[in-house]
Amino acid sequence: MKTFFFSIVCCILLLTACQKKTTIQPLSEDDFRVSYRNMQIDETILPTIDSTLGISDEDIENNYGLVSQGFDNGYSRWNLHYPNNTNTKFEITIMGNGTNPLDGDYIAGIQLYKLPTSRGVKVGDNVDKLLNKYGFPDEQIENKLAYIKGTKKLVFELNNKVVTNITIDYELDRADKDQGFK
To answer: SS in 3 state form for 80-101?
Structure first.
């Protein structure tokens, strides 16, 4: 009887040890950075963006990637594409009152098209991978799952349980307000 009981306990311990246990880490500052060409890119890159990433000729020819200006105040929004407009891996949204993004005041967000997040989730991945890496979202609005740390958001848009868009949101609401859109 002792041998039988001992065998059962060993089997339970073995099964428990073999189970895949994943602990989902809380969001950190790394979750709001993107790795590109051995650089860590986040909202602090603006002062060195010209020397580190540069601006593609396509963006320069397209009015430095100017997307919009505020109705009343002329506050500008630029989207810079990396490495270029034709093969965009990610896009940085810069806000400011100057005549080009190098005069910008702040980075409002980063769109990831062909780069993964710091936890390896990328456009095209299924929702199961997303939930395994990030857990349950802090917010869910329609088809968007948002993970929030302070004022920063990591937003995943889904279609048919597949990630179709990833946004690192530093201050996109502020950007809309600064342009008079909200």
So the answer is: EEECCCCCCCEEEEEEECCCCH
Stretch (H or E) spanning 173? helix 172-178
The whole-angstrom separation of Cα 122 and Cα 10 is: 41
E strand or H helix at 69, and its extent?
strand 66-69
Residues 40 and 1: their CA atoms lie apart, in Å, by 61
Predicted structure pTM score: 0.85
Q: How many other CB atoms sit within 10 Å of the CB of residue 141?
A: 9
Per-residue pLDDT reduced to its tens digit, 114-155: 999 999 999 999 999 999 999 999 999 999 999 999 999 999
In 10 A of CB 57, how many CB atoms? 10
The number of CA neighbours under 13 Å toward the Cβ of 1 is 0
Separation between Cα atoms, residue 117 and residue 124, nearest integer Å: 12
3-state DSSP assignment of residue 54: coil
| Residue-wise DSSP of 94-159 | EEESSSSGGG-SEEEEEEESSS--TTS--TT-BHHHHHHHH-S-SEEETTEEEEEETTEEEEEEEE
The DSSP output letter for 25 is: P
How far, CA to CA in Å, does 149 sit from each of 4, 46, 60, 65, 169?
51, 21, 34, 29, 11
